Every structure is written in C-alpha cells, then in structure tokens.
C-alpha cells in the first residue's frame, strides 16, 4: 500500500497531523489497537495554554509560561523550543475547538485551572476527562476527512530505510512493515513521509498510569533504523495514582488521580496528617512532579507505610463531585468517598520526557522520518515535564511538521527513485509454543525496571539492570526469529529495547537532575547540563 503520508499512532499528535495532511495528499493512519486506547484519551488533567489578552489569568503571559517550563525542566529545556511551543498555545486551542472539542467555561470565559509547577491558572479542561474529549472530537473529524484512511489493529513492526536495504546514498525512510493483527499477515506500507506518533513507554514499568498500548514502539523502531534518541533516563512518575490495598496485582496502582485535584486545593499528607512535601519544597503539593514524586517515595520508605494520602475533605460539600465527576465515581466503585476520606496514593510511571531526537518541526536524523508527541524529544520537557504541556506539544508539532513537509518535501514533488522493497521475511514461521515464557519475561522486565530503575537509582542497581537486560535481549531475539510473530512478541521486543535505552542513558548521567535521581551523585553537575544522545550506528 502506498500513500503520500504514513502516520503511525492515533493520539492527539497523529490525528492532528493526519487531518491536516489530507488537504495535501493521501494519508494512511495506522493504530496498533483501537483509537481510544491512546495516552491522549486517558489524560484527565488538561492542556496548558496562554490565551489572548482578556481571556487569560491576570499577570499570565507566554514569558511566564516559558519561565515555569524552564524551571520544571531543571536546566535541560531548549528555551527556543519552549518559547515557540508556548507561543502557539492559543492557535492550538482554536484548532481543537474547530474540530469540536468542548472545553469547560464559566461566566468569564474558559474555566482555567492551575496544576503543579504552574504559577498561573492556564489549564483548559473538560471536567476530568479532557483527553477523552479531545480524542473523541479528533477521531470524529478524522473519520469524516476525505483522503484519510484509518487502519486500526495494524501493528508497525519496523521502519524501512535505504540504509537497511544496503543503499549507500543518504539514508531516508521508505515506509514500514506492518502486522495486520486479524489475519497475522505482514504488509509493506510505502511512503517517503513517515510520521511517528506512537506515544510513550509507560508499560516498561510494573506500575503505570498508561494504557497497555504504551510499549515504546516508535522509539524502538527509530532506534533500530539508526535515528538518534535522547534523554530516555527522564521518565516522569505521576505522584498521585490511587493505591487500592484490596488489589493484589498491577491494577493496585494504575488509576490516575489528576494533577488538577491538587491544583484545586487537595494536599498530600502522611498517615499523621502532616503535609510532608513542604519539608522538601515550600510549594508543597503544587511543586513540580519530580519533587513531589521523590518526596512521596522518601516518605513511604521512611515510614514503611504502603502509601500516602491526597486530602480534599476540607473542600465544601459537593466540590469534588462537581469538579472531578469521573474520578469521584471511579473511587466510589472502590468504596471510597473522596469528599469524606483522604485518597490513598502512590507514584507510578507516567510520561517519557526523552525520545527520538527532533528539531522544532519534528524532523529526525533520518530524511523523511518525523516524530511528534510523546515519542519525540524536542527539547520542550528537559529533565522534567511541566504538567499539561504534552497535549499542547502534540498539536503544535503536528502542525509544524506538516508545514515543514509541505514546504520542503511536498507530495507533488517527484520522489527519488525507490529501491525495490522486499516482502517481509522472517525466521521460523511456527506458532509460538512457549507463550508462558514470553509473559514471564514481560513480567520480569517490568519488575526489574520498577525495582532498579525507578524514582531513586544507584550505579549498582543500574548495572544489575543492564546485565539482566542483555540476557533478556538475547532471549527475546530467539523468540522473535524462532516463532511466528504476534503482538506480544513485538511489544516485548520493543520494551526490552526501550528499557535498555533508559538504563544506558541513566548510566551516562552522573548527577541528579530532574527526574533522574541517583544516590551516588546526589547533586547537580554543570558538566551534564546537556542532552544524553545515543545512536545505534
């Protein structure tokens, strides 16, 4: 199958790009599962944007938003990138509204909220299911867009590049090999304009707020193709995920309690009622996520308790139910009324701040390959993402990537001669007969990362993780080449690759900065005030 644009991923970045790109040529959008199984659809909080004068919080400005982002990013944000993305926030909101997104309003206009790390109220939301509102409106628009073909349950296996085919000219992308999950067949999708919008890698950890689809596929594919990858040591752990003591598996720590709950006045306390985060930062519960997550981790280890608590019981009756209806109802299913009881919470893996290296237009180090959204490392997030900047980045980069492609590589322009792309070939085509071992490796990998490469690290833990990951890579390689490929094998292959990148980047950063905190190097070191960039070859 051939198209002018091949988009891999169906969150805010992929959908925003695909809808606009259909005005310029044929578009195929691949989603390995269902469209609503994206990080975008799961996002509760909102989208950060400085609105035009008269609509914004008094005293807010793009400069203030930039300053907040730089502060959260702990010295690694690229200021020019931050300024560009923050400056296009109002255009992003207009774009989403044009597709039918309905943000909450009050008598004065948009009902703006505040979240941790933000000094002003600039978060637009749709109750506490903002991501689902954005995803639903974009999906409806995409399905009605002429020239845009959406294929769900199509899993991209690997990128096809001239380099992989042995062509010695400039390395450029040619398309992707894709597994059709319903039939088990592998197809060649040809395009010399491929956009990765596959999201993050939260499932590399045992406990995560991410959907099951977040297995780092885009980063792994780009890495195998030879693209540069950066800053994978910076995995953000969301501080407040519901802890259910009655549950015995990973679901015990998988339900997110939005940052916006703290933004509206809820405070973190220990079992004695003490606001312990203030011991680490005067902003307390509204400090940036890296600070709050470490404070919770430290408090749990200090006290030996399984969790801390998010307390909103001091708010007026009905406040929590009105502002956070989805969270309130979900908690009630677990027998907890947040208006009367503090919510038990723990941190969980939430957001990948590094990724495939791109410029401000989403362009990677491989010609024709672009990366947008969480899969990309643009320089916006630095060492720690500021809350609600991610949905903003996804839309801004989608628009910028398309504009860059249309200017520099338009579909109407004759493409270079394409080498003959061979059909996808594999090793043994026997069905996998050891699925239990595959699932065991999956579980071992996630526990390994949680125990050794989590919120607080040491050299010894990282080395142990690296040693075990080398063995796992060998085992997964045998599964990949020795059995008929299915989604489980592909996801495990990608998770092992991404976990290895996280560890390799973490070993190289001999300091504590943002989301990377190591007991062996507890201080900032100006020698490491730079991105950790890796390239396979």
Percent strand equals: 15-25%
Provide the spatial order of strands within the biggest beta sheet: 7-2-1-11-19
CATH topology of the domain at 239-349: Flavocytochrome C3, Chain A, domain 1
State the low-pLDDT regions, or none: 248-253
- State the helicity in percent bands: 25-40%
Counted by DSSP, the helix tally is 15
Largest sheet: 5 strands, parallel
CATH H level, superfamily name of the domain at 239-349: Succinate dehydrogenase/fumarate reductase flavoprotein, catalytic domain
In the CATH scheme, the class of the domain at 239-349 would be Alpha Beta
Radius of gyration: 22 Å
Which architecture name of the domain at 239-349 does CATH use?
A: Alpha-Beta Complex
Distance between the termini: 29 Å
Structural class: alpha/beta
Number of strands: 23
The geometry reads as globular
User: What's the rounded overall pLDDT mean?
Assistant: 91
Give a structural overview.
With 537 residues, the chain is of the alpha/beta class. Among the domains are: 239-349, Flavocytochrome C3, Chain A, domain 1; 435-484 and 486-530, Fumarate reductase/succinate dehydrogenase flavoprotein-like, C-terminal domain (Methane Monooxygenase Hydroxylase, Chain G, domain 1, Up-down Bundle). Helix content is 34%, strand content 17%. It contains 15 helices and 23 strands. It has helices spanning 12-21, 39-42, 62-72, 79-87, 89-98, 130-143, 217-225, 259-263, 289-303, 319-323, 325-333, 389-408, 435-452, 459-482, 487-508; strands at 5-8, 27-31, 47-48, 105-106, 109-110, 123-124, 148-152, 154-161, 173-180, 185-190, 194-196, 229-230, 235-242, 255-256, 267-269, 308-311, 343-352, 355-357, 369-371, 376-377, 456-457, 517-518, 533-534. The strands form seven sheets. A five-stranded parallel β-sheet has the order 7-2-1-11-19, covered by helices on one side. Helix 1 (12-21) runs parallel beside helix 12.
